Amino acid sequence: MNCWEEFYALGGFSEANNLSKFVSCIRQQAANDKVSLSALFFIVAIVLFVLFHEAWRKLSLQAPGPGGTPAKAVWMWNDGVGPFATKAVLANPAPYLAWTKKHGVNQTWMDIWGLFKEDAAINDFCSAAKKQGMTVGFLFGAPEQALPPYHAWVMANIVEQALDVIKKVGVNHRPTSIQMDVEPHLFGPEFWAKPSSKVLLDDLPAKRAAAVALGDIVTAAQLTFAPPDPAKPSWSKDKGVLMTGLLALVNMIKARLVDESLALGHHIRLVVAVPSWWAGKPALDDGAVVAGVPVAVPILAAKADVAVMDYTATLVQAQKLASNWFTAATASGQLAWIGFETLELTGDEKNITYFGKMTQLEPELDAMTKYAKDEPAFATVAVHTASGYGGKLP
Fold first, then answer.
1. Are 328 and 296 in contact (CB under 8 A)?
2. With bands split at pLDDT 50, 70 and 90, how would you rate the model's confidence at 111?
């Protein structure tokens, strides 16, 4: 593999230290091959072109979406209902594509759990999305996946199958990222009191039966791992252990994506969904610091981008919390999407002003985009979920 192929596969200038590695590689190659002065000038021209291309790429991330409105990303889950859940979109993509074009959506993260055999439909959707300026990434996640007994299962049954699908998609419109929405901060007494949690770590037979029902025999055959009965962790007392497990999974997936990116010559980014307070805001800390370090730091150090879930009460507060992430992500050379919620919440979060109130959400998305447009790490705003968002806007 030559220097350019390695540089591009590792993510170009989106990864810190790649430029110095690239220059060192070129110098070594030139020394080994006794390259002439004219050839070196040609190499410099290539580097300048790459710099321009990378600057354009970052600018395009912040440019208006295909509908002429500020660009935005959305989460699409397979367990959602209505026409904007993954299975429904793959069966009939036209309504979703028309809606995303109208509202400036230029990034969709799709949960394809149970749909790995639908590679032809996924290919068609990715192709149609690319034609209207929208990129596609894959999405997965559940809190228990932060626990080490689940890691091998996640790698074999989610990551590898997602990569197999990416390899089957046309080279001009392949998915560009995999996002893990694994949220160990949800673990606590209330979580374990839920009836669904009583079988949380012993639910593989049910998942296997679901895979069989969907005709996904390959997945069904792989769902044989049964983790041992773990202690029931709680974020308030076990956050160090839980974050260690989460970071181990982040690093495993990142290493695998680097290898596959090199093999394909196609960069696949890793994106980690994170609560806004993981960047370390004292007033909203709630365990966001482990061993004196905001948990944002090791996630970004693993060269993962972040999709920040802004579970906050006001737009001003969301902007302040986002600024912490911009600072941390810029220092690591990564990107940050700033997420907003469309689902109605209850309990302590019921007073969040923009949740479920679309007339207020749209101006707030615009305001966040204007607030963050000059931040080097800012990708776009993001909305959770496609079903919630698309179900409330025409």
1. yes
2. very high
Do the domain assignments include residue 303? yes
Phi-psi region of 12 (alpha: psi -120 to 50; beta: other; left: phi over 0): left
Residue 333 backbone zone (phi > 0: left; psi -120 to 50: alpha; other: beta): left
pTM of the model: 0.78
**pLDDT digits over 80-92, tens only?**
667 899 999 999 9
Tokens of residue 26, six digits: 């070129």
Residue 179 pairs with which residues in a beta bridge? 139, 271
The verdict on 300 and 177 lying in the same domain is yes
Q: Which domain holds residue 142?
A: 65-390
Nearest-angstrom CA–CA distance, 293 and 216: 43
Which residues, including other chains, have CB under 8 Å from residue 170's CB and lie 6 or more apart? 123, 126, 127
- Closest CA relative to residue 5, chosen from 304, 263, 269: 263
Contact 15, 303 (CB under 8 A): yes
Q: What is the DSSP letter of 16?
A: T
Can you name the residues that pair with 309 across neighbouring β-strands? 275, 339
DSSP code at position 64: B
Name the residue among 42, 129, 71 with its Cα closest to residue 335. 71
Q: Is residue 60 part of a domain?
A: no
Residues near 216 by beta carbon (within 8 Å), at least 6 away in sequence: 114, 115, 116, 117
Query: Cα torsion for 209, 215, 219, 224, to the nearest 10°?
Result: 30
The verdict on 217 and 174 lying in the same domain is yes
Closest CA to 64 of 273, 339, 370, 335: 370
The percent of residues above 70 in pLDDT, for the chain, comes to: 64
